[in-house]
Amino acid sequence: MRKIAVTLDRRTVDDLDRWVREGKYPNRSRALQSAIDLLSARDRRTRLVRELAKLDTREEKRLAEEGLDGTWPEY
Question: How far apart are the C-alpha atoms of 39 and 43, rounded to whole Å?
Protein backbone atom coordinates (compact mmCIF):
# COMPACT_ATOMS: atom_id res chain seq x y z
CA MET A 1 0.00 0.00 0.00
CA ARG A 2 1.08 3.57 -0.66
CA LYS A 3 -0.07 6.73 1.05
CA ILE A 4 -1.08 9.76 -0.98
CA ALA A 5 -2.42 13.19 -0.13
CA VAL A 6 -5.87 14.04 -1.49
CA THR A 7 -7.75 17.33 -1.49
CA LEU A 8 -11.53 16.97 -1.30
CA ASP A 9 -14.36 19.41 -0.93
CA ARG A 10 -16.15 19.63 2.40
CA ARG A 11 -19.27 17.84 1.16
CA THR A 12 -17.24 14.82 0.06
CA VAL A 13 -15.43 14.65 3.39
CA ASP A 14 -18.78 14.88 5.19
CA ASP A 15 -20.05 11.95 3.10
CA LEU A 16 -16.92 9.93 3.87
CA ASP A 17 -17.26 10.59 7.58
CA ARG A 18 -20.96 9.67 7.54
CA TRP A 19 -20.24 6.36 5.77
CA VAL A 20 -17.59 5.56 8.37
CA ARG A 21 -19.95 6.48 11.24
CA GLU A 22 -22.69 4.32 9.72
CA GLY A 23 -20.26 1.41 9.51
CA LYS A 24 -20.30 1.14 5.72
CA TYR A 25 -16.51 1.43 5.74
CA PRO A 26 -13.98 1.02 8.53
CA ASN A 27 -12.24 4.29 7.64
CA ARG A 28 -11.93 7.02 5.01
CA SER A 29 -9.14 5.23 3.19
CA ARG A 30 -11.23 2.12 2.64
CA ALA A 31 -14.15 4.21 1.37
CA LEU A 32 -11.92 6.00 -1.13
CA GLN A 33 -10.30 2.70 -2.17
CA SER A 34 -13.75 1.24 -2.81
CA ALA A 35 -14.71 4.23 -4.98
CA ILE A 36 -11.51 3.94 -7.01
CA ASP A 37 -12.03 0.19 -7.44
CA LEU A 38 -15.54 0.82 -8.80
CA LEU A 39 -14.29 3.44 -11.26
CA SER A 40 -11.47 1.17 -12.38
CA ALA A 41 -13.83 -1.75 -12.99
CA ARG A 42 -16.19 0.47 -14.98
CA ASP A 43 -13.27 1.74 -17.05
CA ARG A 44 -12.19 -1.81 -17.89
CA ARG A 45 -15.75 -2.73 -18.96
CA THR A 46 -16.14 0.27 -21.24
CA ARG A 47 -12.67 0.24 -22.81
CA LEU A 48 -13.69 -2.14 -25.60
CA VAL A 49 -16.68 0.04 -26.50
CA ARG A 50 -14.47 3.13 -26.68
CA GLU A 51 -11.94 1.36 -28.88
CA LEU A 52 -14.60 -0.01 -31.21
CA ALA A 53 -16.01 3.48 -31.66
CA LYS A 54 -12.66 4.51 -33.16
CA LEU A 55 -12.92 2.00 -36.01
CA ASP A 56 -13.72 3.12 -39.54
CA THR A 57 -16.46 0.63 -40.46
CA ARG A 58 -16.05 1.15 -44.21
CA GLU A 59 -12.33 0.44 -44.01
CA GLU A 60 -12.90 -2.60 -41.79
CA LYS A 61 -15.45 -3.98 -44.27
CA ARG A 62 -13.07 -3.37 -47.17
CA LEU A 63 -10.27 -5.19 -45.37
CA ALA A 64 -12.57 -8.09 -44.45
CA GLU A 65 -13.67 -8.53 -48.06
CA GLU A 66 -10.23 -8.07 -49.57
CA GLY A 67 -9.22 -11.07 -51.62
CA LEU A 68 -12.58 -12.82 -51.36
CA ASP A 69 -13.85 -14.16 -54.66
CA GLY A 70 -16.74 -16.21 -53.34
CA THR A 71 -14.81 -19.49 -52.99
CA TRP A 72 -13.39 -21.16 -49.93
CA PRO A 73 -9.83 -22.48 -49.87
CA GLU A 74 -9.32 -26.25 -49.59
CA TYR A 75 -8.01 -27.59 -46.31
Answer: 6
